[in-house]
Amino acid sequence: MTLVSVIVAIIVLSGLMYFVMRGKASKQKKRLNPAMAAKKLGFADRPKLDVALVQNKWRDIQAMQNSGPSGIKNALMEADKLLDYVLRAKGFRGETMADRMRSAGPQLGSVTAVWAAHKLRNMLAHEVEHDIVPNQVKQAVADLGQSIRDLGVGI
Questions:
Q1: Alpha-carbon gap, residue 46 to 54, rounded angstroms
Q2: How far apart are CA 84 and CA 28, in angstroms?
Q3: Do 78 and 105 touch, CB atoms closer than 8 A?
Q4: Whole-angstrom distance, CA of residue 41 vs CA of residue 62
C-alpha cells in the first residue's frame, strides 16, 4: 500500500507542478505581448493622419453650421471629434480626449478656448436643458478649427 501511495503522490505533485508552470508561462506571455503593451500606452489606436479626410470633414462642418440649430450643434460635435482624430493621429496619448488635450498642451494654441469649446460640446451632448446660443457654438467650432491648424493640419 505504501508503494501505491507514493506513486499517487508523485502523479498529483507532477500535475500540480505542471499547472503552476503553465500559469506562470501564461502570465509571462501576457506581459510580453507587444500589442497589449502598445494599447495600454495609447499607441494601438493611433490612426494614420489623413489630411484630405480632415479637410473634407472640415468643409462638411462648415456647411452644417448653415442648417439651423441642430446643424450648429452637429457641427460642434463633429469638430470636436475631428480634433480628437487629429490628436490621436499626431500621437498624443491618453484614454480620453481630455487626456490627449492635456498631453498636447500649448500646441493646441489657445488652450482656454479649446477647453471651453470641448466643455460646451459636452454640455450640449449630455444636458437636456442646455440652450444653444448660435454665436457661442459657432465660436467654439472656430476655436476647434484653429486648434487643428495649430497642430499643423491645414483646413
A1: 15
A2: 34
A3: no
A4: 34
CB-based contact 42:95 (threshold 8 Å): yes
CA distance 90 to 118: 19
Closest CA to 84 of 110, 63, 103: 103
Pairwise CA distance, residues 38 & 144, whole Å: 28
**pLDDT on residue 44:** 53
Residues of the chain with pLDDT under 70: 1, 24-45
Q: What pLDDT does 26 receive?
A: 59
Q: Which distant-in-sequence residues (6+ apart) come within 8 Å of 122 by Cβ?
A: none
Alpha helices in 33-131 (DSSP H): 34-41, 51-64, 68-89, 97-104, 111-126
Helix (H) or strand (E) holding 127: none
Quick one: pLDDT at residue 32? 47
∠15-21-22 over CA atoms, to 5°? 90
